[in-house]
């Protein structure tokens, strides 16, 4: 590639930094050198004319760099993108969506510049693979996600408490130090700390299944990492998850599509926003079905999911998408 390549990632949201690092690893695997930095909160720095700049930030902060080829990389969860944010994206040369669902949301929300399904390669640094699917002792469920209401921790915890096999199961929730709530239940382990990538990678394989009751995801990195670790997954089939999941590769949690009931900030809201709401009973039902599956069935499900994900998000497939998008 002849022109310099830059990645600006949102510094206030840890998952955005992770996405920026995964894009940089993708470019590196393609033989493309790139520079990565925190997204500026003040004026954007100058870039050489013709440079390619990926902007991986929150919707209200998208601003193109003058003289550069600007590519917006939004990670929006709900079914509508705020109109003011869409206007920001329409000043860019391209938008790269990490999921087909997000691409559709942006188009119906008024984004008119070219939108391409160009996710990063998710398979370059996979977690340690699970090697045994027969549960030893209590069945161990895992969820990894920030302590935000959108992640559905309340639904997951209540669903876990309603398990018919509850006395023979445990739940680990790996979240961040920002978590201000506690769980007064000895069968639920709450980890509120930042872990290194290598330490987190070991966590998945030590559990029997991954379960997410998230109301909405732009992609769903936790689900993707669990799949790559060959961990059976239970979650809804909505939003970004629809790009990650394949029939026979997960346990579906039933959901209803409802109006998005909360918003962290008013400018994040758009009329008509919806989300996927699963009842605690639906969460419990999916978890119960995972427990009662045979070890062979859990292994087959995990293998099916991993094969699908590796095919769609492997470096060979992703590199072709990146090259086509840059060539435009």
What would you note in describing this structure?
Strand 7, helix 4 and strand 8 form a beta-alpha-beta unit. Helix content is 33%, strand content 18%. With 328 residues, the protein is α/β, with parallel strands linked by helices. It has 2 domains: 134 residues, Rossmann fold (3-Layer(aba) Sandwich), CATH 3.40.50; 174 residues, Rossmann fold (3-Layer(aba) Sandwich). The mean pLDDT is 93. It contains 10 helices and 14 strands. Helix 4 packs across helix 8. It starts with a strand and ends with a helix.
The helical percent reads: 25-40%
Number of helices: 10
The mean pLDDT is 93
SS content category? alpha/beta
Keywords:
18% strand, 328 residues, single chain, Rossmann fold
Give a topology summary.
Elements: E1 5-9, H1 14-29, E2 35-38, E3 52-56, E4 69-72, H2 83-89, E5 94-97, H3 100-108, E6 115-117, E7 139-144, H4 153-161, E8 169-175, E9 188-192, H5 197-205, E10 209-211, H6 221-228, E11 233-235, H7 241-244, E12 251-252, E13 256-259, E14 274-277, H8 280-292, H9 295-313, H10 315-327
Parallel strand pairs: 1-2, 1-3, 3-4, 4-5, 5-6, 7-8, 7-10, 8-9, 10-11, 11-12
Antiparallel strand pairs: 13-14
Helix pairs in contact: 4-8
């Amino acid at each position: 590639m002849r022109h310099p390549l830059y990645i600006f990632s949102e510094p206030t949201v840890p998952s955005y930094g992770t996405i920026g690092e995964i894009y940089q690893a993708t470019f590196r695997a393609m033989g493309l050198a790139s520079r990565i930095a925190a997204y500026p909160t003040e004026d954007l720095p100058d870039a050489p004319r013709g440079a390619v700049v990926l902007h991986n930030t929150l919707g209200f902060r998208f601003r193109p760099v003058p003289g550069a080829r600007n590519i917006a990389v939004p990670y929006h969860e709900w079914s509508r993108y705020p109109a003011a944010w869409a206007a920001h994206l329409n000043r860019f040369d391209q938008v790269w969506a990490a999921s087909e669902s997000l691409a559709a949301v942006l188009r119906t929300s008024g984004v008119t510049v070219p939108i391409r399904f160009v996710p990063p390669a998710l398979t370059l640094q996979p977690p340690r693979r699970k090697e045994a699917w027969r549960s030893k002792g209590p069945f161990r469920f895992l969820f990894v996600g920030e302590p935000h209401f959108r992640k559905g921790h309340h639904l997951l915890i209540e669903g876990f408490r309603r398990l018919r096999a509850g006395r023979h199961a445990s739940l680990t929730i790996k979240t961040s130090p920002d978590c201000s709530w506690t769980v007064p239940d000895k069968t639920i382990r709450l980890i509120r700390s930042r872990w290194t990538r290598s330490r987190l990678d070991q966590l998945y394989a030590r559990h029997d299944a991954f379960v997410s009751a998230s109301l909405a995801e732009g992609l769903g990195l936790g689900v993707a990492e669990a799949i790559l670790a060959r961990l059976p997954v239970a979650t809804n089939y909505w939003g970004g998850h629809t790009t990650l999941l394949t029939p026979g590769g997960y346990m579906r949690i039933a959901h209803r599509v409802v109006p998005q009931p909360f918003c962290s900030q008013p400018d994040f809201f758009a009329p008509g926003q919806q989300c996927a709401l699963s009842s605690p009973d639906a969460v419990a039902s999916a978890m119960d079905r995972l427990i009662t599956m045979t070890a062979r069935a859990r292994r087959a499900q995990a293998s099916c999911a991993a094969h699908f994900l590796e095919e769609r998000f492997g470096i060979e497939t992703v590199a072709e998408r990146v090259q086509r998008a840059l060539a435009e």
